[in-house]
Amino acid sequence: MAMLVCLLVLPATEGTSLSLEDKVSAMAAQMNAMKDEVQALRQEVATLRAGKVDPVAKMFKESGESSRQLAEEGGVSIELNGGETSSYIHGAAGQVGINVEPESDWAGEDSAIRIGGNGAIWAKRDQGSGKSFTMAQNVYDTNAGDTYISNDKASKYSQHSGNHKFFTASRGSAGDVATFQEKMSVNAAGASVSGGLVVGDSVQGTVTFGVARFFTSAYGSNHYYHLRMPEVFNSFEGPGASSSRSAMWHIRVTGYSFSDASKIDLTSVGYNTHRSNGGLISRSQTTGSGFTNGGPYHGTDGRLYIKFRLGDIYYSTVRVDSMRVGNGIVINPGDITITTSASAQL
Fold first, then answer.
1. Taking the model in full, what pTM does it have?
2. Selection from 215, 210, 305 nearest residue 257 by Cα
C-alpha cells in the first residue's frame, strides 16, 4: 500500500517512462524527505512544549494576502481574511482583543476578551464559586475597579457564588471608575428587582411595578399623601412645560396604615388636558379602601397630583404601580414623587 501511494505521487514526464530502478530511487528519495519533515515537526512540538516559542505565533505563519501573522513584543497579532474587512486579534498578559487592542491596565487576575469598541468579557483566573465571570458594555476591569472605555453610560452582567446580577451605571468619562447600581439579582431563592420592574413592551397595558415607594414614622393626624405626577401631566402650555400634553393615567397605590389598622388600596384613573389658561381633569375616578378624600388636582406648580388622606400617617407605608392606558405614557421608577402634608393641596 505504501509503494502504491508513493507511485501515485511520482512525477511524470510526457512521452517518457521510468525504469524500475528509477522508480525505486525516486520512492526512496521521497521517503527520506518525509522522514526529515517528521523529525522537524517533532522538534517543533518539543520546542513548543518547552515554552520557548509562542504557540499562536507558530500556528499562524505567513501565507500570502489572506492570512498574515505579525509577532509583537508581549503578544501576537493575527490578521484573518486580509483586506478592509479583516479582523485583528491581539493577545498579551492574559487578554485578547477582537477588532481592538486590549487596554494595558487590565487587572492582573483576569482572563479577558475585548470585543469591538465597547464590549468586554472577563473571568478570574483562579477557580472557585466566588470567582466572578462578567460580560460588560463600556467598562473593563482594572485594579482600581470597573473603568469606563468611552464617554457614555455602562452596564454589566456578572455571575458568582451561584448569583446572577445585572447592573447599570450613569454616563461617565473614559478612564474614570464607574459606580454601578444593581438592578436585578437571581439566585436559588428567586429573583429580586431594585428600582422597579417594567412588564411589557411600552404599548398600552404595559405595567410598571414600584414606580415609587414611601414610608414615614412621623405623626400626622388627618394628613394627606400627595403623589406628584410626571411633567407630561403639566396643566399649562408654554415655557417649562415643553414635554406636557393631554394624557390619560392609571395609578395603583397599596400599603399599610399602622395607626388606622387598615390596608391602603387606591386606584386612580383619569384624563388630564393641558391648556394655556390651566388644565382640565376629566373622566376621573378614584376608588379603594383605607383612605378618605382621594382624587386628582392641579397644584400651584401646574403639575397633576393624586391625593388621599389617612386618619394618621404614623408608620404608614405605600407603594405605587402604574399602567399605560390610552394616550398616556409608561411611567418609570422615579417619575412620581411622594410627600405628606396637613394641606389638602400643594
1. 0.59
2. 215
